[in-house]
Design a protein that fits this description.
three-stranded antiparallel β-sheet; mainly alpha; about 140 residues; globular
């Protein structure tokens, strides 16, 4: 028997599928833009955007409980590179305040990426997870 066959015969908990960090970042960012970032809050420091809006949105869009975003495991490696790509696409406008300090100046809420993002599947899945957790705790 091969090593692969031996592994499939062993009764153990299935390992969770690998998390696509690129997708997790995109979805958390879009959820933050749609749900929590308001135009009246702009301009906003990118560090504030990431810490107070994107990271909290991870729980809403994560494929399962306990899932954490590790931006260094994305193709962008840094939030600035990710946002620069979205700025090139026209979704948002960035301003450089000082060396290494950027702000999110504007979000184009009519942009295709913004309009086509549907938070409902994520909020529905989160509600189902919360309901399961509450039932398990009871």
């Amino acid at each position: 028997a091969t090593a692969a066959a031996a592994e499939t015969d062993t009764p153990s908990a299935p390992s969770p599928p690998p998390i696509d960090m690129d997708e997790l970042l995109r979805n958390a960012f879009m959820m933050a833009l749609v749900e929590t970032v308001k135009d009246k809050q702009l301009p906003m420091l990118v560090s504030t955007l990431y810490a107070q809006h994107v990271l909290p949105a991870v729980a809403a869009v994560a494929p399962g409980p306990g899932c954490e975003l590790n931006i260094k495991q994305t193709k962008w490696k840094k939030i600035g590179a990710f946002l620069a790509e979205l700025a090139e696409a026209g979704l948002l406008q960035l301003q450089t305040e000082a060396k290494g300090v950027q702000t999110l100046a504007r979000v184009d809420r009519t942009h295709t990426l913004y309009v086509s993002f549907d938070p409902f599947p994520f909020t529905e899945a989160r509600a189902a997870r919360e309901q399961e957790a509450a039932a398990a705790a009871a």
